[in-house]
Amino acid sequence: MSDGPSTILVTGATGFIGHQVVHRLLTHPTRPRLRLLAHETDVPDCCAATAPVVRGSLTDPASLRDVCRGVDTVLHLASVITQDPAHAHAVNARGAENLLAEARRSGVRRFVRLSTAAVYGQGPHQGGPRPSERPLSVTSASRLAGDRSVLDAGGVVLRPYLVYGAGDVWVLPALVKMITLLPRWIEGGRARLSLISVDDLARVTAALATRPTPLPASAVLHAAHPRPVAVRDLVATICRYLGLPLPLGNMSSADLAERFGGSADPALALRLAQFGTDHWYDSAPLWSLAGLEPGPGIAEHFAACAPWYREHLRDLVPAALPPAA
After folding, report:
1. 51: which of 126, 167, 187, 265 lies 20 to 30 Å off by Cα?
2. Can you name the CATH fold of 7-163+196-225+279-294?
3. Residues 309, 179: Cα–Cα separation, whole Å
4. Residue ranges of the domains in the chain?
5. Is there a contact between 210 and 4 (Cβ–Cβ < 8 Å)?
6. Is a pLDDT exceeding 90 seen at residue 158?
7. Above 80 in pLDDT, residue 165?
């Protein structure tokens, strides 16, 4: 699993992150040959017109036969978010094992898996050495199991924490819901978080896939902008561009847990809890390995994606906005 790629197999090409990665690869100066693995979701015409699509399911090893033939690099970007343990394990854990087995059989030299820093659990995490892995959700536990298979095989695991941008239906929508339904600062908004725009994540993933020299074996790389963002600054940026009032007053993480601990939506409760505790990670090794400079932080970048959030969160944000100063 080394050396530079010439043909890249991409899973998850229809997803929030995968679609942007494919776009980056299609416009990359090295012009790699792409092959897209799809299951039930149709690949957008803009991608399918320039890259062959092969059909297969991560949960069905027979359907993956020969999908890696002639492939140098696998970008495994597909995953499922679910509270069903069996489904999560089948896709995120066993699915990774099935694809790895096919990659190994076909002589793939580089395998990069997109995971999540949520596998570390509640925190606080404040840079420094890689934290112990203590996943809190079914999804994160299954993704950690898949990570371990990839690392055991010598592959590379990317772990972003919070990814934002056009297409985000999990991260900032949860924060906007909190701002509108529970307009209080959690722990004064002091918690610092690792964020990365989907554009930057796609850019750095494409750089790893096309790197002409080998990647370090069994590496875990945190994917984030190097500067962690205080929740207070993050919320202020969102409120500014979405026309929302700033929170008033304060509540502790314990108050939040009591309020949402019995929520019918445990995933939402977990996403809200993450805004009260430090979760930031050292991403310098990733940027160095990719040979790239990070893009702007969210304070500068959010203006570009704010129209998308306004459209998709229109039930939560005002229809008419004051101009951003």
Report:
1. 167
2. Rossmann fold (3.40.50)
3. 14
4. 7-163+196-225+279-294
5. yes
6. yes
7. yes
